[in-house]
Amino acid sequence: MNENLAVIYQSFPYLIRGVIITIGLVTGALGLGFAMGIPMAVGQVYGNKYISGIISFYVWFFRGLPVLVLLFLFYFGLFSLLGFNLSAFTAAILVLGLRSAAYQSQIFRGSIQSLNEGQMLAARSIGMTKVEAIWHVILPQALRISIPGWSNEYAILLKDSAVTYAVGVMEILTRANFVATRTYRPMPIFLTCAVIFIVLTYGGVKLLDLLENKVKIPGYGEER
Amino acid sequence: MKENKKIILRVENIHKSYGKEKILKGVSFEIKKGETKVIIGPSGSGKSTLLRCINQLTIPDQGKIFLENEEVTHHKKEINQFRQKMGMVFQGFNLFDHLNALKNVEIGLVKVKKMDKKAAKEKAIEELKQVGLKKQANLYPAQLSGGQKQRVSIARALAMDPKVMLFDEPTSALDPELIGEVLEVIKKLALAGMTMVVVTHEMGFARSVANEIIFMEDGMIKDQGTPYKMFNNPEHERTRKFLYKITELYGKSEE
Amino acid sequence: METITFIREILLAPLLEGTIVTLKLIAFSIPLGLFFGILIGTGRVYGNKFVSSFCTIYTLFFRGSPLLVQLFILYYGLPSIGIFFSPFVAAVIGFSLCSCAYHSEYIRGALQSIKSGQMMAAEALGMTRFKAILYIILPQALRRAIPGCSNEIIYLIKYSSLAFIVTCVELTGAGKIIASRYFEYTLIFAVVGAIYLLIVSIVTKILNILEKKLEIPGIG
């Protein structure tokens, strides 16, 4: 038992550097997904048939394929084909981000659609353009409603980041595997790895809960 | 005509608290075969809790329940046997939403009494006929009106051939037009000789069907007596006041 | 070499073999995951303190950590304490254990959404708790859990691709092996992707039909 603890203790710094990479992956992918997801959601709800159709196709594609397949397809395939010379880390952020955009767009779309029709009507009736209405009235509410779903997306993305092991990103699992094969002590190392992810998952979700409370609109959604 | 009928249910000194609040403060009464006792009283007097203590859906802190002289309380394992002999009808109907009317009545027979499926189906149809719902046998609870739902739930309880029926405000959740059809069924049952305890606000019903009316307040029985006595000459002023108010609200008897 | 010839002669057979492995993986993992998910979800809501705590901790672990890490523990970790699984078995066990944790959450939510009156009425008829859960509560809760559990089943089909990383050669693995040899990643994984999309579409259709068949007026 003591040797197991010792191995964990010694490899911890190395694993923690993996946490930084993982957090980088997750932040980058979530950010990309967010930046793309909102316009996509708006496009699906307020756009015309063609825009809506293209977005639906994008969502269907990126949600229908396994992460691993997307990683292989893009990193080994498309990126090389198109002449991009990206590091595994950058490629992973791009792929995870493009995929996250598909999921996030649906979260935001659901939130936007759950809003009362009257919000848009009222905004237009005081003279706002559609864009202004979306920016000043619809999105502020929709984004707040989206936090729980978004929190779920964070948890999923964090766990999916481990799959980037398959393209050589030096995140937590890759490093854990490295240590496990060198020290011949896979069980304690992989269990520690699992625990690190669990802490990151629930810690992040907790933080998002706090965020949700901070930006809460008093009395919103409660029946009188 | 007072025959020396046997005592079906005896409730002895029931106490029940929820946290710091004492809901039942020592309630006792007994009921003979064929009798109908109606329990009335303001909300919060503990009427529903008392009923649930009788079939141990709520376990009392103190006191005993006897069904046909056998003790029901403190018999954790046999409680299911006892419950088969006590039928309960809830204010919220509590029909099993995933089963149609026929299956709702059948399921106790098949799964609890382990009856043969064919015999169970026949009995279930008969019970539904008795409450006037044979045609609705294949409908699901979501497709039935409130009054129909309550009648199915009565059929469901009766199918188990209980010794005593417990009604917990059976019409309180119903729209006014639907109350009559349910009271009809309960009255018919009383006249046919079923032993029952009914918690209700329906004064007209109480006056015409009850052998005895029990007035509860603050977790205790404050007054009891025949309908005639309670409505014309109760012992306590409080009883008179309550009955007056309720009769005003719910209408006089339909005699 | 011509694309069509390539597909026909080199790609098709291994990909088909891989697809069969994928289908075998999900054929075992889906029912196992669902079954144990029902047990764990029910245990969490209706079990005593020990059962309930165990189910909670189980769910916490398997939903908080990545599936891939769990697979590594099963396939690369356990041998160090004397337990050896074949890649296929390790994958099925891993998928089942992980999937059941997610199913259990949907089931738990559904169970908690059933009105308490249902249990009261069942007990009033003389049913034991167990019978009431089996004949009254679960039939309703499972119908309510169908959307969530269907979602999880679709996820499992996609995550079955991770079996490759613990050396079980399913569809993705087959594709990777050929792709590394011929450097045709884009084409091959486009085909692989198309096959996944097809499988997911078919399963979604089946689940929709099942949901319709189980529909009861007023529930769900």
What percent of residues of chain B adopt helix (DSSP H or I)?
25-40%
Encode the helix/strand succession of chain B as letters. Answer: EEEHEEHEHHHEHEHEEHH
Low-confidence stretches of chain A: none
| Rg measurement of chain A, Å | 21 Å
In the CATH classification, which architecture of chain B applies? Answer: 3-Layer(aba) Sandwich
Strand line-up in the sheet with most strands of chain B: 6-7-8-3-9-10
Global morphology of chain B: globular
Can you put this structure into words, describing what you see?
The complex is a heterotrimer of chains A (224), B (255) and C (220). Chain A is mostly helical and 224 residues long. Chain A has helices spanning 2-46, 49-64, 67-81, 88-114, 117-125, 130-160, 172-183, 186-214. The longest helix of chain A is centred in the N-terminal third of the chain and has 45 residues, at 2-46. The N and C termini of chain A lie far apart (59 Å). In chain B, α3 (101-112) crosses α4 (117-130), α3 (101-112) runs parallel beside α5 and α4 (117-130) crosses α5 (146-158). In chain C, 81% of the residues lie in helices and 0% in strands. Chain C has helices at 3-46, 49-64, 67-77, 87-112, 116-124, 129-159, 171-182, 185-213. Chain C is elongated. Chains in contact: A-C, B-C. The A-C interface holds A 60-61, 64-70, 72-73, 76-78, 80-81, 155, 158-163, 165-166, 173, 176-177, 180, 184-187, 190-191, 193-195, 197-198, 201-202 and C 60-61, 63-70, 72-73, 76-81, 158-162, 164-165, 172, 175-176, 179, 185-190, 192-193, 196-197, 200.
Key descriptive features of the protein:
heterotrimer, A: 224 residues, mainly alpha, MetI-like fold, flat, C: 220 residues, 0% strand, elongated
In short:
The complex is a heterotrimer of chains A (224), B (255) and C (220). With 255 residues, chain B is of the alpha/beta class.
Note the topology.
The complex is a heterotrimer of chains A (about 220), B (about 260) and C (about 220).
Chain A (H helix, E strand, L loop, with lengths): L1 H45 L2 H16 L2 H15 L6 H27 L2 H9 L4 H31 L11 H12 L2 H29 L10
Helix pairs in contact in A: 1-2, 1-4, 1-6, 1-7, 1-8, 2-4, 3-4, 4-6, 5-6, 6-8, 7-8
Chain B lengths: L6 E12 L2 E12 L3 E5 L6 H8 L7 E6 L2 E2 L7 H7 E4 L11 H12 L4 H14 L15 H13 L5 E5 L7 H16 L3 E5 L3 H7 L2 E6 L2 E6 L1 H6 L4 H14 L5
Helix pairs in contact in B: 3-4, 3-5, 4-5, 5-6
Chain C lengths: L2 H44 L2 H16 L2 H11 L9 H26 L3 H9 L4 H31 L11 H12 L2 H29 L7
Helix pairs in contact in C: 1-2, 1-4, 1-6, 1-7, 2-4, 3-4, 4-6, 5-6, 6-8, 7-8
